[in-house]
Amino acid sequence: MNAQDVMTSPVFTIAPDTPVRDISALLLARHISGVPVVEQGDVVGIVSKSDLLHRYEAEPGGAPSRPWWQRWVQRTAPPRDYVRSHALRAADLMTREPVSITEDLSLARVAQLLTAYRIQRLPVVRGRRLVGIVTSGDLVKALLRRADADTSCTDACDDTQILARLVAELERQTWWSRAWSHVSVEDGIVMYHGMVGNEAERDAARVAAEGITGVRGVVDERLCTIEWQTMV
Fold first, then answer.
1. Closest to 195 in 3D by CA, of 166, 225, 163, 167
2. Of 11, 31, 94, 138, which residue is most buried, by most CB within 10 angstroms?
3. What is the predicted pLDDT for the residue at 87?
């Protein structure tokens, strides 16, 4: 699946001169956590709830936005921080040049970008034109839909089907070694034999098996290489 399969389109947008009060009202009314800033069809920024929280820290009684030691060394906020914390319109509050993606980007890559940049949403663009938006919530929904649609193997499927799917999954992993480990399936119970490098690899093999529909349990009798070395 790609970004275009899960993105929301059309997208609620705001202009650079949209007042902060209107932005807050939009996020609340539409139950969204962020909104792209668009100028002549091009994405020029994005405003999120965290940006608004930073803005309201400047209100009376707001929490200080900088560590105490920084406030002691630098008694006034840096100019850019001051602008964002006192902003009255989107242009002064928004995150400029936000990370964006194209429609054909894989969901795996989308997830990597969200994690790497610690963000919750990615504008989807065609050139610079906004065509949609993908959020972390969209990825969760896609994962649930894929799980519901996975009917290639039911609880009644035979051991051969389970084994074929599990082996295919294991062979894609760098931590799996056919030379050291053997896997079999009997009555829906996955059994591992041989040797395993460490407990993390054992856990990974268990999770791989549990992810196959029809698996009723996992038994891992492999000897850890560290334990084996202490025995010889």
1. 225
2. 94
3. 86
Whether the predicted pLDDT of 169 surpasses 50: yes
Maximum Cα–Cα distance for the chain, whole Å? 74
Average pLDDT, the chain: 85
Query: Which of 86-95, 109-118, 137-146 has the weakest average pLDDT?
Result: 137-146
Q: Judge whether 140 lies within some domain.
A: yes
pLDDT at 147: 63
At 140, is the pLDDT very low, low, confident or very high (cuts 50, 70, 90)?
Answer: confident
Count of beta carbons in the 10 Å neighbourhood of residue 178? 11
- Global pTM reads 0.62
Last residue of a domain, one of 111, 145, 179: 145
**Domain of residue 43, residue span:** 3-145
CB atoms within 10 A of CB 3: 23
Average pLDDT value for residue range 78-84: 76
Q: Tell whether the torsion through CA atoms of 158, 165, 105 and 111 is positive or negative.
A: positive
Angle 20-30/49-56 helices, nearest 10 degrees? 140
Whether residues 164 and 138 share a domain: the answer is no
Q: Give the number of domains in the chain.
A: 2
Residue 209 pLDDT more than 60?
Answer: yes
